[in-house]
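#onboarding

Welcome to the new folks! Below is a worked example of what a typical request in this channel looks like: someone posts a single protein sequence, and someone else replies with the predicted structure as tokens. Don't worry about understanding the tokens yet, we'll cover that in week two.

Example request:
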Amino acid sequence: MRIRKYYMKTESRIDAKGVQEYGERLEILAEQDNDQIEPVVVVDDARNKLSPLHDLFEWDDSVAAHQHRLAHARLLIRSIEVVIKRDGKKFQTRAFHNVIIKRNDHTERAYAAVERVMSEPELRQQVIEKALKELESWQRRYSEYKELGIVFTVIKAVRDEAVVMDNVQPVAMVE
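Example response:
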């Protein structure tokens, strides 16, 4: 086994305190199959209560089934696109964006229609910030590939110039 230091991805929803143990276990599993790994192998290993990966999974099937349905609903919402018209041009884009919405005395995550996102500066800013974070994440993921240097330069330029424009025309749905 290689000795490496493991880190949790910045945007991860998994608790980072066990990252070294998780990484080492995944590496052991990968070494068993020519340095590659498949999710089914990870789940099979995690079934063992002694596996360091065990507590990362929900083992109550009714809870896990509900979580799976919610994940499928999120996938469905993220998969639907619409054609919008802005500045005389047509664009195919997501119909809904995941944003933080203020409701009465609290905030919650929800999927807002693209028209609402484009017309409300706070929601629009959230989507722009998320897009920039995704660009930065993509750049970190592929930073060792020098062939992508020009793309990294453009990402930096976009990040440096990104501002929300108050005078953006609202979008119109195309039937």
